[in-house]
Amino acid sequence: MSYVKNVLEQVKEKNQSQPEFIQAVSEVLPTLEPVFTKHPEYEKAALLERLVEPERVVMFRVPWVDDKGNVQVNRGMRVQYNSAIGPYKGGLRLHPSVNLGIIKFLGFEQVFKNSLTGTPIGGGKGGSDFDPKGKSDNEVMRFCQAFMSELYRHIGPDTDVPAGDIGVGAREIGYLFGMYKKLTNQYCGILTGKGLEYGGSLARKEATGYGLIYFMKEVIEAKGKSFKDATVVISGSGNVAIYATEKAQEYGAKVVALSDSNGYIYDPDGIKLDIVKDIKEVRRGRIKEYADTVKGAEYHEGCSGIWTIKCDIALPCATQNELNEESAKVLVKNGVYAVGEGANMPTTIEGTGVFQSSGVLFAPGKAANAGGVATSALEMSQNSLRLPWTFEEVDQKLHQIMINIYKQCEQACKEYGCEDNFVAGANIAGFTKVASAMMAQGIV
Ligand SMILES: NC(=O)c1ccc[n+]([C@@H]2O[C@H](COP(=O)([O-])OP(=O)(O)OC[C@H]3O[C@@H](n4cnc5c(N)ncnc54)[C@H](O)[C@@H]3O)[C@@H](O)[C@H]2O)c1
């Protein structure tokens, strides 16, 4: 059995209760085989065994009092995955589904993604099984304060810099930042995704969605295609989905569908984004309300039906494993030619296989959605400089970073003989930098 296969078996054996983590590692490791053939010294240094094991996992209770005076207890965690190329960096997720396996999968992915950005940041991820849905502002604040009252001792601007993810937007980052400052008496760039008044970066909110479109533009234009007049389906209606829609529309695409965890909307005339922003960003409502407002738009219960809509480009931007083999086959049958992952691991391994064997251009999340964390790194730079950059400056840097990520993936594909396989290209390009740094730093 090869070294890579052996380590993969160990991972499966040791982490049996963590299917998402096993899935993420199973997607990455086999694509790295050719790198290990070229670098036999990595095996002697147990590089892979070290890479799959987080440097540190912190798990803690989060007790808080709800509006009725009842004590609630959630589980909080932070996985500090790999600091070979910089301080741990990655979001915090607040969702009832959060468990250690999910946070480990996200942290593992983050290591490669952050490496691809070309900025000096390591990988980490955290979160809690707290559900912000239906909670009052005061309850969210009390939860965030309780969460930070433990997390603060494990993070720092040169140690670990968390950010947002599902369920963590500007409101939550504000409460977390306030508590960190109170506890430590330090005003520093401890979180990214901050408000503009207190150290945030312009274009951070837009970055993941815009970055996805910048990346996909490179992918499709290399094959003579364009966003102009393309029909696009985007799942989700959160931060990533909204700004992917905005940039795709700016490039002349017609985005015809969006979704949330209850169902999806289809608007054959093209989504009116100002209405979606009002529902989601202002009123925190359900996507269903769009169909109540816009004539000709339809609402359908259930999430996976969105993939039955005929489109040229599909961008899953909601959550993990939302696009399976069956949905992938329907998309292919309906003529999709490109799929870009705005979310983290939204396509199952079998779904990815369908796209790749059908010649669909498939861009994995760790490359395609890296714009968010890249701009977080730009926010860290601005915090250290104590100088804010303009929207245009940040957006231009983001655009260039996404082009560079595309070029790195393309180059790795060429070097290792897997042309157009962006899954392998992204894994290899992300891995090689981290691997060299780990080798240089000895057995730690
Ligand atoms: N925000 C970022 O900067 C960023 C960066 C990189 C990757 N991501 C990833 O992108 C994805 C979305 O993150 P976000 O920041 O937009 O979160 P968000 O909380 O703003 O939005 C998530 C959206 O997905 C919807 N949703 C949840 N489960 C769903 C399902 N099963 N089917 C359809 N819709 C569903 C929610 O209703 C919501 O509209 C996540 O996988 C996240 O890890 C986010």
UniProtKB/TrEMBL annotation:
Listed NCBIfam families: PRK09414.1
Full protein name: Glutamate dehydrogenase
Binding sites annotated in the UniProt record for NAD(+): T208, N239
Record-linked PANTHER family: NADP-SPECIFIC GLUTAMATE DEHYDROGENASE 1-RELATED (PTHR43571)
BP term (GO), one: glutamate biosynthetic process
Family stated for the protein in its record: Belongs to the Glu/Leu/Phe/Val dehydrogenases family.
Record InterPro entries: Aminoacid_DH-like_N_sf, Glu/Leu/Phe/Val/Trp_DH, Glu/Leu/Phe/Val/Trp_DH_C, Glu/Leu/Phe/Val/Trp_DH_dimer, Glu_DH, Glu_Leu_Phe_Val_DH, NAD(P)-bd_dom_sf, NAD_bind_Glu_DH
Keywords: NAD, Nucleotide-binding, Oxidoreductase
GO cellular component terms, A-Z: cytosol
Gene3D superfamilies, per database record: Glutamate Dehydrogenase, chain A, domain 3 (1.10.285.10), Leucine Dehydrogenase, chain A, domain 1 (3.40.50.10860), NAD(P)-binding Rossmann-like Domain (3.40.50.720)
Residue span, Glutamate/phenylalanine/leucine/valine/L-tryptophan dehydrogenase C-terminal domain: 201-442
One Pfam entry name: ELFV_dehydrog_N
An MF annotation (GO) of this entry: glutamate dehydrogenase (NADP+) activity
Lineage: Bacteria, Bacillati, Bacillota, Clostridia, Christensenellales
Record site: Important for catalysis: D165
Active site per database record: K125
Domain of life of the native organism: Bacteria
Subunit record text: Homohexamer.
